[in-house]
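Notebook entry, structure prediction.
Reason for the run: the old model in the group folder had no record of what sequence produced it. Starting over properly, with the input documented here first.
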Amino acid sequence: MKTLAFFEIPIDVKTKSTKGSSPKLLDKLIEQLQGAAEIKISFFLYNNPYLHKAIELLAVKGCHIIIYTIPLSGYDRRKKEITLPNGKKGHYSKYEYAEKIVQRVMNSKLPIELRYIPHTNVWYVQKTSRGLDSYALHSKSILIKNGDGSYKCISTSSNMALGDPPHSENLFITDRKKDIHMFHTYFDLLHKQSLSLKEYGEFCQQSYDFQYVTKPSDIQDEYGTCYFTAPFIKYNGAGSNHYVQNKIIEFMKTARQRLYFCFQHISDINSFDKQAQNIVSELGEIAGSNPSLDIKVIKQTRSNHQKQGDRTAKAEQFLKCFRNIEQKVLFPIIHDKFMIADNNLLVTTANLTSTQFAWAEDYEMRYQVGQEKYSILNTFSDINSFHFTHEHPVVNDYLSHFSQLWMIGDCL
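New structure, fully documented this time:
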């Protein structure tokens, strides 16, 4: 199998579907699951009834499935207007459909296991309660073992979540050996850091989610084409976020003709973590050293779309200093996360934010519940996947997708 990619750019950006933010990509994903003997899913949100129905049908055939996701307390309880298959409107929350799926798993005898990753991230003091915690798991990645014993890896920018609005999204599928090796390592470590529904229930009787402490494992880099950032991963002694950020900067520096960015958020300037580099400043260095380099940046959000948009505004103003950098915005469509350097491609589930590449081990995270304050020593890191490739067909597919978004974007 060659590396494949699928894309979806919505025409209607307001109507929320019961199939989630990316109905066409959901269908493609379900196609890729067919014939699987074993599936491991790592999704930030897991509340899509169509996806879970497909999972149940595979389980009936003997496929063993493990789903790793965040606890129910991380789901939005606000009801959103959803368009039903018959065209009628209904009002549902992300929480209630996630809860329904949990109940289906608990009441089922099918070989489906659902496990929680309760690890949270806070760089500064955060007032918190159930439903407001900032969970580390952001990756949308799947490892599939086929019936013939072969494997394939899937990463997507889409949460596939019921309640999400339509977005521009992409689906990346590969069976490269090093990606498979990394996915096995990631899911093995993820399993050790996760809790079964029963274990989580017992944990919640005595603790808040932010009191769940994670210690990193130090692994040797044998991967090359694929990486995960996570609070439980260090590479060659370095925090995974710092290590992967360096890989991305090295990737950026290979560009000689073009360097294209397409992300929902681009605000990695003045990182919360003073030990980290930052992508925006490095981009400025690259632009200044090669004035003929064609640099294009397109994103979804501006500073007025975020509660703390100062870094987004600073990043925009900084990049305007370079004549060879063009910036566009396409709100509220873009949810893609990828980068193209000449004929090389990076596909990720991460945004370029001031926290994504922050890393700290035994970091003091401070929380407040009512009047009571907590200080927890934990590992700060988001969980995301990163694929690097130079396979021309899939690079060209992403170039075409980028061009379509660029044509309809608004200049900054």
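Summary: The first helix runs from residue 23 to 33.
The old model has been moved to the deprecated folder.
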